[in-house]
Write a structure and sequence with these properties.
The complex is a heterotrimer of chains A (370), B (469) and C (96).
Chain A: E1 2-3, E2 6-9, H1 13-24, E3 29-33, H2 41-44, E4 48-49, H3 59-69, H4 72-76, E5 87-91, H5 94-109, E6 116-119, H6 120-126, E7 136-140, E8 144-145, H7 148-161, E9 165-168, E10 172-178, E11 181-186, E12 191-193, E13 195-198, H8 204-210, E14 218-220, E15 223-227, E16 237-240, E17 246-249, E18 255-258, E19 264-266, E20 271-273, H9 276-289, E21 297-303, E22 306-308, E23 315-318, E24 325-329, H10 339-352
Parallel strand pairs in A: 1-12, 2-3, 2-13, 3-9, 5-16, 13-24
Antiparallel strand pairs in A: 4-8, 5-7, 6-7, 10-11, 11-12, 14-22, 15-18, 15-21, 16-17, 17-18, 19-20, 23-24
Helix pairs in contact in A: 1-7, 1-10, 3-10
Chain B: E1 10-16, H1 20-31, E2 36-40, H2 61-64, H3 66-69, H4 71-80, E3 84-87, E4 89-94, E5 99-104, E6 107-118, E7 122-124, E8 137-139, H5 140-150, E9 152-154, E10 158-163, H6 165-176, E11 181-186, H7 192-196, H8 200-205, H9 207-220, E12 225-227, E13 230-234, E14 241-246, E15 249-254, E16 257-262, E17 264-266, H10 269-273, E18 278-281, E19 286-289, E20 302-304, H11 314-332, H12 341-352, H13 355-361, H14 366-369, E21 376-378, E22 383-384, H15 385-393, H16 399-406, H17 419-430, H18 434-437, E23 449-450, H19 451-455, H20 460-468
Parallel strand pairs in B: 1-2, 1-6, 2-3, 6-20, 8-16, 10-11, 10-16, 11-12
Antiparallel strand pairs in B: 4-5, 5-6, 7-17, 13-14, 14-15, 18-19, 21-22
Helix pairs in contact in B: 1-4, 1-11, 5-6, 6-9, 11-12, 15-17
Chain C: E1 2-4, E2 11-15, E3 18-22, H1 28-34, E4 41-42, E5 49-50, E6 63-66, E7 69-73, E8 84-86
Parallel strand pairs in C: 2-8
Antiparallel strand pairs in C: 2-3, 4-5, 6-7, 6-8
Classes of the chains: A alpha/beta (370), B alpha/beta (469), C mainly beta (96).
GO molecular function (chain B): oxidoreductase activity
Domain SoxA A3 (chain B): 376-455
Keywords (chain B): Oxidoreductase
């Protein structure tokens, strides 16, 4: 019988980060991953590392994560391809810009100053290639982007170096109470541990359901496209609000186009089917926003399977029904940046029973209330 | 010339690829009354084996040989069958709902099929030797293409290297066209003969036997054929010398053109991206689709005919196309009359006879499939064998992780020229079979399209109506 | 590297501004080979020269700019009278 202090279910950025931080606290975690670490959304997302435009409930976690991102190499021994050229939320009309101004003002009242309204001239300075119809936007200058697969692998590797055990190609089949510990049945035999973290992403609702706390998790697969290499023309990540777009050029010259248009996911087959009508909409948005991209070639499209909650914010914190179980899933297409900080917070919570980083409003009980 | 806007929104059958399998399938289905369209990305039909069959300037029949001219009947039959044949049409996606993304002259469309037959054939097995990216190094198939389609032949010092029936055929065709060949460097291992013996009886009954011997005799009479164990192309910015090791000693040949070939493998990109299951074939050293007796794939409604179903050659490809088309007709229009499938299957069995012997005798040697050192493996991203091996040793267990670490397979060719090499290198480092390592996970678009083309795709009912008008 | 067996060129195209005679029925890649142009692009990674390798649409080494549109597979595009072809240097310029 394998035993551990904590079983972490799921080898995405969150599971790997939590495993690493648990190991750093001297605990012995076993991470169980049904495919391989970073196989799904954590390995194939757009790589955006942004504080910009986040839900208020996530802001503390996002800020604590950003502090880790800025020294990511110290933590995991790899720079994860992280660079920091800011994220720019582009307004496509004066009306939209007015809405952004209201949001920035509200954040300032709450004491958050990292979002900064910019005018047309500053937008053109930051993003010279942007179409002339855009009157301004919002910038978060410390934001950036990283290589998602490399990052997830770096957390996995460092977790193992620090004493975590990572079991890949093994599926968790059930959870049951065995005296004072949890018995986690897997396709490779049982593991017993007093604590369990449910970081199973698009499959996390099945774990929660076993614990008597079903959640309305939606399986989604946000689509991305990448171009062939083009000469450098843009540094910040650009996002839109009115239309779906995230847009960034990697150091190697390729341009990654995303923004949340969804493929059809088949989570039991690890498969997604792209929706070309929606990718066409993406292509048209880029066509209008970045005329320089019109003749660039698209070489690949893909989608990573992940979980979305109805309120678009994650489920984080102790189970409402089962002592010793912790949830960390449902990041709703914006969980990559949160990985480092949420893992640290979760390890602190498990090890000490409390954390200074507030997670109010993110508990699973919000789905069982009346 | 059919434009994107001329296409119907839907067809009973969409055939992808205009080689023997595609032409035979489209003809049979159209004659049986299915609305049929054949998309082919080349300027004319024929695929690679019958390349330029309707337009070749090579009028002297003996140069290309009678097997080539047999393609003319297939092409004219397809033309007369009522199938729409669209050349210059690049298929960039096929999904399980049988929607086909097509691009013609810079305009993209999605077209719906009742059934799809993928007949995208084969490509030449990657031949990663030092210097294979130099200008002046090409595939043997490339030289055959320029001969057939354009009447262009090598003019300088020309060296052929590798193994397999196509290399001998090309040598003979070039000789007949008056080309001087400096040498043919033969890379297959003599030990293959022993392993091939059990397949010899079948081979002796097949048409390959007589044809093959004749070609070899013809070539050997005019060209030195040298067995080699190592091979490299060198030069600064373009090919200057071919360096080889034969019988333990290194030799050099000045050369303007080096033509490489060691067999062909299924072109799996479209089928895999559509979700069709594939498995490793150890005898042919490649991934082949899992197919039923009618060449139906694991995706309902999608069949894979021709060499894409596993290498069997052009005449077998046509019979496979017919079998797949009969299944399509029976599914969509059961009352239509079609040829008796048993007769076609018997013909196919005859055509496939002898193939096992060829697979084994011309099995490319390990060292020519699994390079070492700084030999480039991924031509697009210029990733070397050493990088792939070292990354596998670091714990990178599969080709998909390799993509993320090294960008191998992430360039415009989408792994076509490195996929098998990367799989085999990882397998060798991990000491497991290529079957366990698997292949790149392929995603559409399977051919690059410009952002402008994609933006031109009509979406929504109103736009589609405007196009159909 | 290559010579024509018989047909005389009848189509005129421009390659990097220079006039090149081609035969109707040539692909762009074939016309470049027949004209003795020894490479059609340099790679975006190391700048190494590349020439057509497979001529059957799979290797993407014959990528050229045709009538202003970059990254086109020269082996799949037939020549047309007056066509303007440019070899590609490293990363293709985005938009011009």
């Amino acid at each position: 019988m394998r035993t551990a202090d904590v079983v972490v279910i799921g080898g995405g950025i969150h599971g790997c980060s939590t495993a690493l931080h648990l190991a750093l606290r001297g605990l012995k975690p076993i991470l169980v991953e049904k495919d391989y670490a970073g196989r799904h959304a954590s390995g194939v997302n757009a790589g955006g590392v942004r504080q910009l435009a986040r839900h208020v409930a996530e802001i503390p976690l996002s800020i604590s994560s950003m502090a880790i991102w800025e020294h990511i190499e110290d933590l995991v021994g790899d720079d994860c391809g992280f660079d920091s050229h800011g994220t720019v939320l582009v307004a496509e009309s004066e009306e939209e810009l007015a809405g952004f101004r209201a949001r920035v003002d509200e954040l300032r009242l709450r004491g958050f100053t990292y979002e900064e309204l910019i005018d047309r001239a500053e937008l053109k300075r930051l993003v010279p290639a942007v179409s002339d119809h855009c009157p301004g936007g919002v910038v978060s200058r410390r934001d950036g982007a990283a290589d998602p697969f490399r990052t997830t692998q770096a957390f996995r590797r460092r977790a193992i170096e620090k004493g975590a055990e990572v079991i890949e190609g093994v599926r968790v089949t059930s959870l049951s109470r065995a005296g004072t510990v949890w018995r986690v049945e897997t396709s490779d035999g049982p593991i017993e541990a007093p604590k369990v973290v449910n970081a199973a992403g698009a499959w996390a609702d099945r774990i929660a359901a076993q614990l008597g706390e079903p959640v309305p998790l939606e399986v989604i697969a946000p689509m991305l496209m990448v171009s062939s290499r083009v000469p450098p023309f843009i540094q910040p990540v650009v996002i839109l609000r009115g239309r779906k777009l995230s847009f960034k050029q990697l150091a190697n010259g390729t341009v990654v186009i995303g923004g949340g248009h969804l493929a059809t996911p088949f989570r039991d087959e690890n498969r997604t089917v792209l929706d070309w009508s929606k990718l066409t909409t993406s292509a048209r948005t880029v066509w209008e926003l970045f005329p320089v991209m019109r003749e660039a070639t698209i070489v690949r499209g893909w989608a990573g399977i992940e979980a979305r909650m109805p309120d678009d914010i994650p489920v984080i914190g102790p189970s409402s029904t089962s002592e010793g179980i912790y949830h960390q899933f449902g990041f709703s297409a914006h969980g990559f940046q949160l990985g480092p900080g949420t893992g640290a917070m979760m390890a602190e919570l498990i090890a000490t029973g409390a954390s200074n980083v507030p997670i109010d409003g993110l508990g699973i009980a919000r789905f069982s209330r009346g | 010339m059919i434009a994107a806007a001329d296409l119907s929104p839907a067809y009973d059958l969409i055939v992808i690829g205009g080689g023997p399998a595609g032409l035979a399938a489209a003809s049979l289905a159209a004659r049986a009354g299915l609305s049929t369209v054949l998309f082919d990305e080349n300027p004319g039909v024929g695929g690679q084996i019958y390349r330029g069959i309707t337009s070749t300037p090579v009028k002297n029949g003996t140069v290309l040989g009678e097997d080539y001219w047999a393609g003319a009947a297939l092409a004219s039959e397809a033309k007369a069958s009522g199938a729409s044949i669209v050349n210059g049409a690049t298929v960039w996606t096929l999904d399980p709902s049988l929607a086909v993304g097509i691009s013609i002259a810079g305009k993209a469309r999605l077209v719906q099929a009742g059934r799809v037959i993928i007949a995208t054939g084969a490509l030449e097995r990657p031949f990663p030797i030092p210097g294979w990216t130099l200008p002046g190094v090409m595939t043997a198939g490339a030289a055959q293409t320029t001969l057939k389609a354009q009447g262009l032949v090598p003019s300088g010092r020309t060296v052929l290297a590798g193994c397999g029936p196509l290399l001998w055929l090309l040598a003979a065709q070039l000789l007949r066209a008056g080309v001087k060949i400096e040498a043919m460097l033969e890379t297959s291992s003599r030990r293959n003969w022993l392993r091939a013996l059990p397949h010899l009886p079948d081979f002796l009954l097949s048409p390959y036997w007589r044809k093959g011997l004749g070609l070899m005799r013809e070539v050997k009479a005019a060209v030195p054929v040298i067995p080699v164990q190592k091979l490299a192309a060198t030069g600064a910015g373009k090919l200057k010398e071919v360096v080889y090791v034969s019988g333990g000693s290194e030799r050099r040949l000045l050369a303007d053109l080096l033509l490489l070939h060691h067999g062909v493998v299924p072109n799996v990109n479209l089928a895999m991206a559509a979700g069709a299951a594939h498995r490793w074939n150890e005898r042919q050293l490649c991934f082949v689709p899992e197919l039923d007796d009618d060449f139906g794939s694991s995706v309902p409604g999608i069949a894979i005919a021709g060499d894409g179903a596993g290498i069997a050659g052009g005449t077998a490809a046509a019979e496979r196309g017919r079998i797949a088309a009969i299944a399509a007709v029976r599914a969509l229009k059961p009352e239509a009359s079609v040829p008796a499938p048993q007769v076609v299957r018997q013909k196919l069995a005859r055509e496939e006879m002898g193939r096992a012997f060829l697979d084994v005798i011309y099995r490319p040697s390990d060292s020519f499939r699994r390079p070492e050192g700084d030999t480039i493996v991924c031509r697009c991203e210029e990733v070397t064998a050493q990088q792939v091996r070292a990354t596998a040793d670091m714990g990178c267990e599969g080709p998909n992780q390799m993509k993320a670490f090294l960008r191998s397979g992430m360039g415009p060719c989408q792994g076509r020229l490195c996929g098998l090499t990367v799989t085999e290198l990882i397998a060798e480092q991990r000491r497991v079979s290529p079957a366990e390592v698997g292949y790149y996970r392929l995603r559409p678009p399977v051919k690059p399209i410009t952002l402008a083309e994609l933006a031109s795709l009509p979406i929504g009912e109103a736009e589609r109506k405007a196009v159909e008008r | 590297m290559f010579k024509r067996l018989h047909d005389t060129p009848t189509v005129t195209i421009k390659v990097n501004g220079q006039t090149v005679r081609a035969r109707s029925g040539d692909t762009v890649a074939a016309a470049l080979l027949a004209a003795g142009i020894d490479h059609c692009r340099t790679t975006p990674v190391t700048g190494a020269p590349r020439a057509p390798y497979c001529l059957m649409g799979v290797c993407f080494d014959c990528l050229v700019t045709i009538d202003g549109i970059g990254n086109r597979q020269g082996c799949l595009v037939p020549v047309r009278e007056g066509m303007e072809v440019a070899t590609q240097v490293g990363k293709r310029e985005a938009g011009r």
